[in-house]
Every structure is written in structure tokens, then in C-alpha cells.
Amino acid sequence: MIKKGSWFSKFSIIIPVAALLGVMLLLEFTSALQESQTVDEGAHLSSGYSYLKTGDFRMNPEHPPLLKEISAFPLLFLNLDDPINHESWNTYNQWDFGRNFLYHNRADADLILLMGRIPVMLLSLILGIFIFKWAKQLWGNTAALFSLTLYVFEPNILAHSRYVTTDLALTLFLFLTIYALDRYLQTYSRKDLIILAVLFALAQVTKFSAVILFPILIVLLLLKKFHSPPGKLTYRKISLITAFVVLITGAAILLAYGFQTKRPIDDRNIKEYFEKQSAVTDLSDYSDEPFLARKLLTFTNPSTASGKIIYELAQKIPVPAFYYFRGLGLLIAHDFWGHLSYLFGRYSDFGFWYYFPSTFLLKTSAPLLLLFFSGICLFSAKLLKTVFCSDNESPSKIDIIKKRPLLKLKNRIQKKLNNFAIFFRKIPFTYWLLILTPLAYFLWALTSKINIGHRHILPIYPFIIILVGSLVTIKTRWRKTGKIFLTVLLTLYVASTIRIYPNFLAYFNELVGGPQKGPKYLVDSNIDWGQDILKLKHYLEKNDIAEVYLGFLGSLDINYYNFNRKAIPKDKDKNQIRDFNGVVAISVTVLYEQDRSYAWIERLEPDAKIGYSIYVYDLRKNKISL
């Protein structure tokens, strides 16, 4: 008999874990080979390389440097050209800089891109290991393997674990931070506190949206105080923990930016801002601006007392880690002014409050949705049973009309609150970490005006996956039926992901019609991020199409791939449309752009869908009816 905890027992669980992670890496790597650069990758990878080579953080300041440097590190071994010899370096043009770096260098552009993507794939494997580890600690091996399988085949995770972008890295470090917090709250050891602080800091230098961890940390510590026996966690200790985490984070930010200091006025964009402000002498010129913008412009105008002080400080006071605060300011400004967003065929400059609930329902696999909502129902039933059915009294209208009804009502409410407190303390605090962290992150996302991709709520998935894994452990009289149910759902889940390979970015669940119907609901990085140019090139070569009318979303250098291309006629070019004779390839974001310039194409049925993001229409010798 094999003893629990023996070498053989441990080895037997390592095999399926390694196999699952191996499958994940295989799916990521082989699909990445088939995809061209997405919109953001050129700017991220080139800026990361410039940080490592020059220590100058001027490029792409709207994202902290850690992930970009991790991705760019393998490129140091490719003997690439110095990135600062292009005009875009002096003009701070990150898009031209990225194009020049990738497509006019000593190495092949697709090799450079692949080398930058591999570190992100490795980070995804680390995340998988810790999902398994935490689930195993909570629910055991079977549930942990169930959770790991859900993670490995989660299409949104697979989509963004192959790109040089910050979404997967933030997901990793945010998850590890909460995992480390759970460990620290069990041991209260200095070692675990240091680990918590370091992981918290790594999240902050990965993506600016990690700032949500500050309030999350404080709220979770306060909840732990009420969950623990009196005196176990005091307000003083909470303050010291928070102060230590903030201190380590500040040190990490300084380190990440090379302890660089910079006078704000030496930044090209800030200098131009003050020059424009100095040209405005009549403050009534700001009257057409939104209220907050008007107040800010007035406050910083050098003709005002406050503006004069700010201008003097910008000229004289060097700021440590200047580009961290510059980037954070850019994010705040971006969110204030909003970003053009598309949802259900409509556009908005300020997003939609229901954007992320919609993307969650559209782009999460149907089996995972079913498991997730089943878990919510079971949890809610247990909560309601504890709160409302744990005493012998039953609510009655008679209580309200008897003597002193307000006192009786108050007593009844107090009992329900006490019951909830009992329920809160009976459930291990780890479970609350897993529930409240993604809930807080999701609710915070609802306030964002930057609605450009489901990827922005990617960090909620590891928590959901671990919680769903607990369903394996539920014991009921229908246990055998439950096992069959879970097995069927898991099989459908894996099949759904395999079916869309290698086009993971374009995943939409079967309940809404799959990726074929995707553009009806969402565009941009939800389905079309410029990733399918390589696939289009192969399609044109295979079908002997020498010339194409091309409209695409992307920041890559299209000339690198030697397309013989022409511009697609717009609706206003009626004569060109009437006499049109050629092949059109148009990405869905361009096809459904706000002004609907290509409505004449929308009415047609595409002959092919390349990766579901580029539609091809063979209109040779086909007369177009207007």
C-alpha cells in the first residue's frame, strides 16, 4: 500500500500536473508562432529593450517597466541594433519606435517577437503551479487537478499568455499577493510578511491598475481582525503591516526605475504642456472644457499664483521615479477623458457601465459559467439558511403590529446580523480572500471609462477557477451523478477551447454563437488586435491572390510582409464600388468602425474568416449593387 505523503505518492501527482502545464505551453507556443504582432506588443517590447540598454524610461510610460523588461531580456542575446538611433526616440513616438525596432533590425521580426513572448508563457506556467498548490491545500489533489485543468484550457488565459502585454503578468502577481497574504495571516511570520510585501510591490511595477491592491489589502486586514479572536490582529499591527508594504513598494518603484530622478520640465510632453499653458492669458478660454479639466487647467496656468508655483517646482525639483508618476498621471487622464468603446453595435467615448459584465458572459466558456453560477447558488443558499433559519422563530406580520413593534423589529434584525457574524466566522478566512478579491477587482473595473478589452478583468479568473474546484468536494446523496455532471462539463469545456485553436483571442462562448458572431458584440482586443496578418498572408499565397484591397487594425509595419495592397473604397466612392473587381481583406474593427465607412461590405457574406478577425471577400467579376 502506498502511504500518503510518500515519494511515490508525490511523484504520481507531479506527472499529471507536468502534463497539463506541458499541454498549456504547447498550445501557447504553437499558436504564437502563427500570429503576428498585436497592437501593443511593438511598443511594449521595444520600450522594454530601451530600458535595459539605456536606463531611459521615456517610451511607453503609461505602463510600469517590469513585464516589458522581462520580455525584452532574451533579446539582449540577439545583438540587435541600438534603439535610440531613430528619430522616434527624440519625438517620444512609441509606435514608430516599436515598428523600427521590430521590422528594421538585424534579426527577423517574427523571431524577435517570439523571443519576447516566451517569458510571458513561462509566467503563465508559474501561475498554473500556484493555482494547483493553493487549490490542493484547500480541497485536495482531485479538486486541484480539476482547477488546474480549468486554468490550462481557459481560452482568455491562453489568449493573453502569449503576448508581450501586462495583463497576464498582473494576473500572476495579484494572485500571488493574495496567496502570500493568506499564508502570512496564518503564520504572522516576518518571512511571510516580506514575501507578501515583495509580491505586492512586483504587482505595482507591472501594471498601474494594481493600485487597487492598496484598498483591497486594508479591507482584507480589517475583515481578518473581525474574523480572528480578540487581540490576534490589532489596529496597530494592521497599520504596521500596511506601512511596511508601502515602504517596500516605494523601494521597489525606485529600483524598477533605476533610482532615476528627473525634473518634470525636462520631459518633452510636460514642457510642451507648460508652453501651451503660457500662451493662454485669458482664463475664459477654458470655459468650454469639462468642469474638472477647467479647474485643473486654471490651477496649473502660469498666470495664476498656483500655476506659477507649480511651474517653478517643475523647473527646479527633481522627482524620484519620475516616469512612474508620469505614467500614473497618464492613466488617470486617460480614464477621465475616456476611450472610444464598442459594445453590442454601439459606440461610446466614455464606455458602458455594463461593459465588463457583458464581456464576462460573452467570453467565458459556457461550462465554466455554469459551474461558477452553481457555486454562487450553493454559497447563497448556505448563507440564507444560516442567517434566516438558524433560530426557532419564524418571521410574522404579527410581530410588527404587537406592542413596541420597533423594538421587536430591532431585535429581529440584530439576530439576523448575529447569525451573519456566526456564518462569517465559521467559514475559513481563506475562502473570503478568494471571494472578495475578484469581487472588489470586478466592481472597480465597472467604474473604468477605458472599455477596450475583456483582458482588463483577466485577474478574476484564477480566483474563480479555484473556487469552482471546490465543487468537486461537495458531498450529496447524488454524488455519483455529480461526478458524471462535472466530468461532462469539463469535457465540453476542453473541447470548446481545442475547437478554437489557434485563435484563442477570438473566443466567444457557444451560448452567444461563438466567434462567428463575435463582432456583433465586441471588437478590438476581444477579437481583432492585428494578430492575424500572418494567417492572411498564408491564405493569399495558398489561393494565388496577388493583389488585395486591405484594411486592418494594427501597429505593425505591413510592408514587412510584402503585401501588394490597395485601399478599400469607402461608401462615398460609389463609382469605384460599382466597378469594383478584386479581393477585399478587412479586419472586423475597421469594418464596424464608428462612421461605418464600409457599410457596402457589411451587407455581403465573407468568403473566408481569417482567425475570425479578418474577413475576406472575393469580389472579382461580381457586380456590386448599391
From TrEMBL:
Residues 117-248 form the Glycosyltransferase RgtA/B/C/D-like domain. Its main location: membrane. Pfam families: PMT_2. Coiled coil: none annotated. GO terms for cellular component: plasma membrane. It is found in: Cell membrane. Signal peptide: none annotated. InterPro entries: LipidA_mod_glycosyltrf_83, RgtA/B/C-like. The keyword Transmembrane applies. The chain crosses the membrane at residues 7-27, 111-131, 138-157, 163-181, 193-223, 238-259, 323-344, 364-384, 429-446, 452-472, 484-501. Keywords: Cell membrane, Glycosyltransferase, Membrane, Transferase, Transmembrane, Transmembrane helix. The keyword Calcium does not apply. GO terms for biological process: lipopolysaccharide biosynthetic process. It is a multi-pass membrane protein. One of its GO terms (molecular function) is pentosyltransferase activity. PANTHER family: MANNOSYLTRANSFERASE YKCB-RELATED (PTHR33908), MEMBRANE PROTEIN (PTHR33908:SF11). This is Glycosyltransferase RgtA/B/C/D-like domain-containing protein. It comes from Candidatus Kerfeldbacteria bacterium CG_4_10_14_0_8_um_filter_42_10. The lineage of its organism: Bacteria, Candidatus Kerfeldiibacteriota.
